[in-house]
Automatic annotation (TrEMBL):
InterPro entries: ATP-dep_DNA_ligase (IPR050191), DNA_ligase_ATP-dep_C (IPR012309), DNA_ligase_ATP-dep_cent (IPR012310), LigD_ligase_dom (IPR014146), NA-bd_OB-fold (IPR012340). This is DNA ligase (ATP). The keyword Ligase applies. It comes from Pendulispora brunnea. The keyword Ligase applies. The lineage of its organism: Bacteria, Pseudomonadati, Myxococcota, Myxococcia, Myxococcales. It comes from the Bacteria. Keywords: Ligase.
Length: 334
């Protein structure tokens, strides 16, 4: 498993003075989309592809660059290709909001490639909003921010840094085509809306399949081997972790062995989550909750996930960040 980045945000000495004014003016708290089930009307909404990667705010001032996660962690050293590409643009006092992704040969973001960058996957930074350019733009309408962003970085998808593209037409068809191409889904953004840090109903996300982050509390070993047969998963409910199911597909042979080694280093005797089924108790190897994984699944029933598949490790979150993501019925406007 890849080493998680540092758990505290540290700005390198060379960037501290140059970027202090931007960090003070625009804290690294991005706007988050609310999960919706129905597609809102195109008369009041703009649509963008949903990219599958790590959410990053990019603080730029000429040669000084800082990449900050949504948990206020410094990830500049994790993505040097992106930092160097932003540095080469020599952007004047700007804060961009976007996603760092690893793309395949067809330019489609693949989260598993982001986990295994030793294979040479191309990293890109897809910017979809501009929060500061010489002044605070968060109170400017969405369309104004988008125009400024596109002028700043352009749309060339062959570059390492580029602006996302708004899709036009029937949103149901856009979602269908996005799913067929391999994207995670689409994001609908309300026209004329301002940038509001935190969860918002002016940004809605529609997914191609159910996807969720889970804390890992242990594993069931594969029969006849000391490797992961299935990861045991949990989510936070209140101040405790609760068993949420398991996933046993989507791993490479190497990942099964590597995950087992990492989890074995932090073994515990008792299950670190509540409500574990009796049949799981008899076969599980428990581990201190430290790891977060992303899993796709069809549905959940009686504490288990149906047709689940491992998608990758989320080094940007902790197990206590993981709660069930439930669609908001009030976030489905006509």
């Amino acid at each position: 498993m890849r080493r998680p980045p540092a758990r505290t945000a540290k700005v390198s000495p060379g960037n501290a003075e140059a970027l202090a004014h931007l960090l003070g003016a625009v804290p690294p708290e991005p706007q988050l989309a609310t999960l919706a089930e129905s597609v809102p009307s195109p008369s009041r909404w703009r649509y963008e592809l949903k990219f599958d990667g790590y959410r990053i705010l990019a603080y730029c001032d000429r040669g000084h660059i800082l990449l900050m996660s949504r948990r206020a962690l410094d990830w500049t050293g994790e993505f040097p290709e992106v930092a160097n590409a932003l540095r080469a643009l020599r952007l004047p006092a700007s804060v961009l909001d976007g996603e760092v992704c690893a793309v395949d040969e067809g330019g489609i973001p693949r989260f598993n490639l982001l986990q295994n960058r030793a294979g040479g996957a191309r990293l890109v930074y897809v910017a979809f909003d501009l929060l500061w350019r010489r002044e605070d733009l968060r109170r400017a309408p969405l369309e104004e921010r988008r125009r400024a962003l596109e002028k700043l970085v352009g749309h060339d998808a062959a570059s390492t840094v580029f602006a996302s593209t708004s899709a036009e037409g029937d949103p149901r068809e856009i979602l269908r085509l996005a799913c067929r191409a391999g994207y995670e889904g689409i994001v609908a953004k309300q026209q004329g809306s301002l940038y509001s840090p935190g969860r918002s109903r002016t940004w809605l996300k529609l997914k191609c399949s159910k996807r969720q982050e889970f804390g890992v509390i242990g594993y069931v070993p594969m029969v006849g081997g000391k490797v992961v047969g299935a990861l045991l998963l949990a989510v936070r409910e209140g101040d405790r972790l609760v068993y949420a199911g398991r996933t046993g597909t989507g791993f490479t042979t190497a990942q099964r062995a590597e995950l087992a080694r990492g989890l074995d280093r932090h073994r515990v005797e008792e299950p670190p989550a509540a409500d574990v089924p009796r049949d799981v108790l008899s076969t599980a190897i428990w581990s201190k909750p430290r790891l977060v994984v992303e899993v796709a699944y069809l549905e959940r029933t009686k504490g288990e996930l149906r047709h689940s598949s491992f998608k990758g490790i989320r080094a940007d979150k902790t197990p206590m960040d993981c709660t069930w993501e439930i669609s908001d019925p009030n976030a489905n406007p006509s």
